[in-house]
Amino acid sequence: MAQTKETALGEALKAAVQSISKKKQTEMIAGHLYTSYPVFKQFKPLAIGIHETLGTALPQYEAQLIGRVLSNHCRKPRYLKSVARGGKRFALDGKPAGVVSDEEKAAAHKQCEDLEARAALAAQTAKPLASKPAADSEPPSTEATPPAAE
Q1: pLDDT (mean) for 104-127
Q2: How far apart (Å, rounded) are the C-alpha atoms in residues 54 and 57?
Q3: 43-74 pLDDT per residue, tens
Q4: CB–CB of 39/46 below 8 Å?
Q5: For residue 42, how far is the Cα from the chain centroid?
Q6: How would you write the chain as a 3-class SS string?
Q7: What does the pLDDT read at residue 61?
């Protein structure tokens, strides 16, 4: 009997969540992960297969959306730097669950370098726009000239 109520409640929750936009759902998932699991907030290297654990822990969300949130997290510079340092990987409960391989460290290091190069390029292209004189960037006046007095 209790199993039926939990299933019905779970289904109702899932239906309610799925009525929310995908963007809002991903924000909700991210917020939940960062507040509930310190490994996310601390940007520790995550255990391989953690998406499956999260799918089980968050059945009200689509696996695709959980994957999107994980992908966004794993592309953040702070996370990439953590993986590039190597060491242990961690499960949701914060316990060690494997180690970062040399190949993974090298790939994360390369991604960090790529991000830094893109940021430097963006900064270089933004400087010429910022250094233009203010007079060039002001829109032309739209005020009408007052009629001449006769």
Answers
A1: 89
A2: 5
A3: 999 999 999 999 999 888 889 999 999 999 99
A4: yes
A5: 14
A6: CHHHHHHHHHHHHHHHHHCCCHHHHHHHHHHHHHHHCHHHHCCCCECCCHHHHHHHHCCCCCHHHHHHHHHHHHCCHHHHHHHHHCCEEECCCCCEEEECCHHHHHHHHHHHHHHHHHHHHHHHHHHHHHCCCHHHHCCCCCCCCCCCCC
A7: 86
